[in-house]
Design brief:
The protein is mainly alpha-helical. The protein has a single domain, classed as ABC transporter involved in vitamin B12 uptake, BtuC. The chain is about 75% helix and about 0% strand. The protein is built from 14 helices and no strands. The chain is globular. The chain starts with 9 loop residues before the first helix and ends in a 5-residue tail after the last helix. The relative contact order is 0.18.
């Protein structure tokens, strides 16, 4: 796919993305309720904390910001895959039932298998994300005219509401409302090195799958007929990409809870500067999503320090107007 002469080259965009990520990651480690210096950050990064500030960065802030980076990249890539597969500009893991399904299954596990451990919670989130997605697409497929962006979003809203109500009902019945609310609030506070080590391999696998199949996703984003005409095994490619979405969304919910709109906004922003080729959209979405999530978490920690502002609230404040704009301007298809 030839690059238009007036578009910024992919190499330049990639360099700018990595530079923005490095700067934002440093700022996220530097700023917070507790005062810290560049020296404290450096000592924490090299694993030789010296004093309270560098120890705080090493044990609390560093795993938290690595989690924000990983989840931001994962949800942005998941949103990009969903938009490409469905040719739906409104596709987002938080809007189409994935994160609500994962959250509901997490509530079930906390109620009936309280000692299952983090690996069990993560597995439950994978299953819940798959169930939520299948439910949404099953409802969307009931109409003989096939899928439409609006129908999928309406199905996603209905399923998300139902599964959220299930999670809340379980919380009330088993007196787990506080625990479930901490998960569903959507944030990286309290992330430990152990949790980060358990979850990031799944996120990495999901992103690698997306990168490896980005060319096939570009063809799929045109139409199934074009993909089949070019000899692409569309059912197999969709199944593999669906697995990537489940890994990315399920692992993200297991780590930080329910976050909507991030997967909606980032691919659209990237697409305006990178074009329709998913070989560019996927890596740039990962970088942009990571930067955005780091920024949102840093704002949440500092805007009302020492109190925390919910990251999901900050993301929603930006995402909801963006969602309304997409509905009004681009509801007919992905640009």
């Amino acid at each position: 796919m030839q690059e238009p002469s007036n578009r910024i080259s992919f190499g330049v965009l990639l360099i700018c993305g990595f530079a923005a990520l490095a700067v934002m990651f440093l700022l996220a480690l530097l700023f917070g309720a507790a005062d810290s210096t560049l020296r404290d950050v450096w000592l924490a990064l090299i694993g030789k904390p010296d004093g309270k500030a560098s120890l705080l960065i090493r044990e609390l802030r560093l795993p938290r910001e690595l989690a924000a980076l990983a989840v931001g990249a994962a949800l942005a890539v998941a949103g990009a895959i969903m938009q490409g597969m469905t040719r739906n500009p409104l596709a987002d893991p938080g809007l189409l039932g994935l994160t609500a399904g994962a959250n509901a299954m997490l509530a079930v596990v906390l109620a009936f298998l309280p000692g299952v451990g983090f690996l069990g919670i993560m597995t439950a989130c994978f299953l819940g994300a798959a169930f939520g997605t299948l439910l949404v697409f099953g409802i969307g497929a009931l109409n003989r005219r096939g899928f439409s962006p609006l129908r999928l979003v309406l199905a996603g809203a209905a399923v998300s509401t139902l599964l959220t109500a299930v999670a809340e009902a379980i919380g009330i019945t088993f007196r787990l409302s506080q625990e479930i609310s901490l998960w569903s609030a959507g944030g990286v506070i309290g992330t430990t090195w152990k949790e980060l080590g358990a979850i990031t391999p799944f996120l990495a696998v999901g992103i690698l799958i997306a990168l490896f199949f980005s060319r096939q996703l570009t063809v799929l984003s045109l139409s199934d007929e074009v993909a089949s005409g070019l000899g692409q095994h569309t059912a197999r490619v969709k199944s593999i990409l669906f697995l990537a979405i489940i890994l990315l969304a399920g692992a993200s919910v297991a780590l930080v809870g329910n976050l909507a709109f991030l997967g909606l906004m980032i691919p659209h922003i990237v697409r305006t500067v990178a074009g329709p080729d998913y070989r560019r959209i996927i890596p740039l979405s990962a970088l942009t999503g990571a930067v955005f999530m780091l920024l949102a978490d840093t704002v949440g920690r500092t805007i009302n320090a020492p109190y925390e502002t919910s990251v999901s609230a900050i993301v929603a404040m930006l995402g909801l107007p963006f969602f309304i704009w997409i509905v009004s301007k681009k509801g007919g298809g992905v640009t």
